[in-house]
Write a structure and sequence with these properties.
The complex is a heterodimer of chains A (272) and B (191). Chain A has 272 residues and is mostly helical. Helices cover 65% and strands 3% of the residues of chain A. Classes of the chains: A mainly alpha (272), B mainly alpha (191). The interface between A and B is large, with 69 and 52 residues.
Chain lengths: 272, 191
């Protein structure tokens, strides 16, 4: 029971109506090392990040290992996923040259998808994308890529077209240019990161609070009597959110990848 | 059941840091990237990227190309087989039609031959009958002549005998015979 983060001191089912931690960070930050590789201590989060990588590699490897003429069901799933990212995101958004960005977009999608689904994976129940290191790191990478592509394809016209948009009336150009500049170079990476991060934090928070409260109340029936019934709606609600979070996990992986492609596209074709 | 679920849910969760006093920085801490996690995340992503770039994407492309080539080859083979089957069918149809014509021709020929045979048989039978008839009539004629000759001789003999008896036979035998013959010839000339 002492493994229960919330129950271990933060919850009093006799008086509270929901269990919540003293500080929300307790749900997200695991400082203790699970084990160490040489000088590097591996915390639970770092372990899960590496696990997500291993899962992605394993899925791809086993999905594509045998070059079958008639693929297995699992093979079809992986192939469809890859073709979806290539046709609908890479080529669909960026155009024919999108195939160049396809490996990056596919890696993003798979890594975020697995990372998000950790939220609803039994035994793990923690989305690594709820850590700013992952959400922020990946959106920083997207930022680096789309800025680099912008300069590479268009040189300084890339920034020029942003800060002096010729399609708007001349009086508005400084204002629109400033907005565009800030939006492209500052807000894009930030919103991209926060959208994923906040969704996963919220999901994890809801699931943990509801399911743990539900469990703590229902299991304390011997001590608190009828008050234990409070746990039933919490638990039921938690299970509902659980299903909802599966959709959120997939959707957020898709949105992050899609927006990354949109940003690259807007760096290549600056005229609109 | 519920306790199992809890254990499952929190098996990996670590004990709460009870010893640490709760700080008011929780929210900010949540927003700031943890350096270790950032490094781990970037390394993990780069490994995934290289794997996808160097292996997964080419692997899928090769599979799809191979599949495409195979499907095309099979389609073309099927197309060729269809064309061949159609030409075979045409041949067979022609053969069947030829066989029918041939059968009709054979039957016709047989009928003609049968008629011919029939006509021959009838003709031969008629000829034979005619032959038999004519032979019979010849035979009858011969017989009649023979009988007539014999009759004539006997009549002559009888006549001679009778005449001898009548005339008391002064006339020699030869003279009487000539006389009778002449008489008979005269008789013959009468009828």
């Amino acid at each position: 029971m002492e493994q229960l983060i919330l129950a271990s001191g933060a919850c009093d089912p006799a008086n509270d109506i929901i269990c919540k931690p003293d500080n929300v960070i307790e749900l997200f930050k695991f400082e203790d090392n699970l084990f160490a590789i040489g000088p590097w201590g591996i915390t639970r989060t770092v372990f899960l990040i590496l696990l997500a990588m291993v899962i992605v590699l394993t899925l791809l490897f086993f999905g594509l290992r045998k070059r079958r003429m008639v693929p297995s069901k699992f093979g079809v799933t992986i192939e469809s996923l890859m073709q979806f990212v290539r046709d609908d995101i890479a080529v669909g958004i960026i155009g024919p040259e999108g195939t160049k960005y396809y490996p990056w977009l596919l890696s993003l999608f798979m890594f975020i998808l697995v990372g998000n689904l950790f939220e609803v994976t039994p035994l793990i129940n923690f989305p690594i994308t709820s850590r700013m290191a992952i959400a922020g790191g990946l959106s920083l990478l997207t930022w680096v890529i789309f800025v680099f592509v912008g300069f590479k394809k268009n040189g300084f016209r890339y920034v020029g077209a942003l800060v002096w948009p010729t399609t708007v009336p001349i009086a508005l150009r400084p204002l629109v240019g400033l907005i565009e500049f800030v939006s492209t170079f500052l807000l894009r990476p930030l919103t991209l990161a926060v959208r994923l991060f906040a969704n996963m934090v919220a999901g994890h928070l809801m699931l943990t609070l509801l399911l743990v409260s539900g469990w703590v109340f229902m299991s304390s029936v011997g001590e608190i009597g009828a008050r234990a019934l409070i746990g039933v709606p919490w638990f039921a609600f938690g299970l509902g959110i659980f299903v909802f979070e599966i959709i959120v996990a997939i959707l957020q992986a898709y949105i992050f990848t899609l927006l990354s492609a949109v940003y690259v596209e807007s760096s290549i074709h600056i005229e609109h | 059941m519920l306790s199992m679920l809890t254990q499952v849910l929190f098996l990996f969760a670590e004990p709460a840091p009870i010893s640490e006093p709760a700080t008011e920085e929780g929210g900010i801490q949540l927003l700031l990237p943890h350096p270790d996690e950032l490094i781990a995340g970037l390394i993990a992503f780069i490994i995934i990227f290289f794997f996808v770039w160097k292996w997964a994407v080419p692997a899928l492309n090769k599979t799809l190309e191979a599949r495409q080539a195979k499907i095309r080859a099979e389609y073309e083979a099927a197309e060729a087989a269809k064309v061949e089957a159609e030409s075979l069918l045409g041949d067979y149809r022609e053969q069947v039609a030829g066989a029918q014509d041939e059968a009709t021709a054979i039957v016709d020929e047989a009928r003609v031959a049968g008629e011919q045979v029939k006509a021959d048989i009838v003709a031969r039978a008629e000829a034979e009958a005619e032959q038999i008839k004519s032979r019979a009539s010849d035979e009858i004629e011969g017989e009649r002549e023979r009988v007539a000759g014999e009759l004539r001789r006997e009549v002559a003999d009888l006549s001679i005998t009778v005449a001898e008896k009548v005339v008391e036979a002064n006339l020699d035998d030869d003279m009487q015979r000539q006389l009778v013959d002449r008489y008979i010839d005269e008789l013959g000339g009468v009828h």
